[in-house]
Amino acid sequence: SYDALVTDVVMPRIHGTALVSRLRSHAQLGQMPAVLLASGGPQDDPFTRTAAKLDAGSLVRAIRTAVGEAS
């Protein structure tokens, strides 16, 4: 059992948003929270701008929020 999916947005075989879309259609995994990260890319990409400001503490808080845990 998994609490959340943490994945990159840009991957070689599938885009992170497509992965989450597939996850949503899965009967057992459809309600799993997902956190998408962007490690690089165009500066006009909203995913990239958000990830650039994300430090380790912020990532942990985002995951805890996604899975419904108190910080």
| H/E series | EHEHH
User: Structural class, please?
Assistant: alpha+beta
Name the poorly predicted regions. none
Q: What's the Cα radius of gyration?
A: 13 Å
Classify the beta-strand content into a percent band: 5-15%
Mean pLDDT across residues: 77
| Largest sheet: number of strands, sense, barrel closure | 2 strands, parallel
DSSP helical segment count: 3
SSE map:
Layout: E1 5-8, H1 16-24, E2 34-37, H2 46-52, H3 56-67
Parallel strand pairs: 1-2
Report on the architecture of this protein.
This protein has about 70 residues and is an alpha+beta fold. About 40% of the residues lie in helices and about 10% in strands. The chain contains three helices and two strands, in the order βαβαα. It has helices at about 15-25, 45-50, 55-65, and strands at about 5-10, 35. Helix 1 links the parallel strand 1 and strand 2. The radius of gyration is 13 Å and the shape is flat. It starts with a strand and ends with a helix.
Give a brief rundown of this model.
This protein has 71 residues and is α+β, with helices and mostly antiparallel strands.
What are the main properties of this structure?
single chain, 71 residues, alpha+beta, two-stranded parallel ribbon, 3 helices, flat
